[in-house]
Automatic annotation (TrEMBL):
It comes from Microbacterium pumilum. Keywords: Membrane, Monooxygenase, Oxidoreductase, Transmembrane, Transmembrane helix. Coiled coil: none annotated. The keyword Oxidoreductase applies. One of its GO terms (molecular function) is monooxygenase activity. SUPFAM superfamilies: Dimeric alpha+beta barrel. The chain crosses the membrane at residues 145-165, 177-196. This is Antibiotic biosynthesis monooxygenase. The keyword Cytoplasm does not apply.
Amino acid sequence: MAEPDIHPITVAIERRIDPARTVEATSWMQAGTDLATGFAGFLGSGWVRAGEASDLWYMLYRFRDIPTLEAWEQSPQREWWLESGRTFADEVRVERRTGIEGWFDAPFATDVESRDAGGAFPASTATGPIQQPIPAAPRRWKQAVAIWLGFFPTNLLASWLLGFIPGFAELPLVLRVLFATLALTPVMTYLVLPWVTRMLRPWLQRGS
């Protein structure tokens, strides 16, 4: 049996909202985030409008993994919430981001109307939602370059350091690779890739 995906799952939803129902839609969008906060695995959510004169609204939420996401998406509470907005909200596009692509998600600006997993508003949301669409992920070749820039020096350093361990070079190739990947995976995940993508973010987002 395949192991469940334990990576955080980010879902971005694009909807068209009846401009005459903006006040109702604002309350409706917030009600959706309020409902999601009560589900296990909820990591946060937010929504933005493409522009004051635009009917495009974007909602984004994140869960711990696929099972917790599906528990929310298949819940009667969410079905009731979606049904309550059918008359003024039309879903246009849904996008999921998971695994390594999550490292390249552009963060929300500080004025986005959003709540954290505890349901509290950040202090910076006092000005209301910003008029800005959700940024797209960087191009695939740029993601590959960023990963390589982190992986090459990390792997080079690790190979040099492992050479000082007595008897390591005499181990079978499979065991050497196993030990190296076990050591490097958390380093890449929690230290190297977040740092590389933060340093390269202006270049990664340019032209996305």
